[in-house]
Design a protein that fits this description.
Layout: H1 2-23, H2 39-50, E1 54-58, H3 62-67, E2 74-75, H4 83-87, E3 95-100, H5 104-115, E4 121-126, H6 127-132
Parallel strand pairs: 1-2, 1-3, 3-4
């Protein structure tokens, strides 16, 4: 009986350690597309968004979004319980450009979109890099 309790305790400790390590790890994007945005590509992305051919989605928290965000973007917080519900309101035939602070959360979002059957969920990286490459801030 002691052996069983000891093994169960060790198993719980191992699972807790793995779960804690997971919360601090860097996400590696799976199969969905990722773009390195430069100045000329920025102009093309804005043109697509303004013409209604694409969405620009900021997947950061509402607080982050309120402090600074790209013009023409919509905030859909990847950490929200309603993320899937909100994303599924977007048309599957349009490109969905995703960004966050560093490109980590937008990579997760791009993979999530792909799992929902979206073909055009594209991680374009982090906010500061996008601004440096010509995307306008609001």
């Amino acid at each position: 009986m002691k052996k069983i309790l000891t093994l169960a305790s060790l198993s719980l400790i191992a699972h807790a350690s793995i779960a804690q390590a997971d919360t601090h790890s860097v996400y590696t994007q799976k199969n969905s597309p990722k773009l390195s945005v430069n100045t000329s590509l920025s102009k093309s992305i804005i043109k697509e968004i303004k013409s209604g051919k694409a969405y620009l989605i900021d997947v950061r928290t509402p607080e982050e979004y309120a402090s600074k965000h790209l013009k023409y973007s919509k905030n859909i917080n990847i950490r929200s319980e309603k993320f899937a519900e909100s994303i599924k309101t977007l048309a599957k035939d349009k490109k969905i450009y995703l960004y966050c602070r560093s490109g980590n959360r937008s990579g997760k979002a791009a993979d999530t979109l792909q799992s929902f059957g979206y073909k055009y969920g594209i991680n374009i990286g982090g906010l500061d890099s996008l601004v440096a490459n010509g995307l306008p801030v609001e």
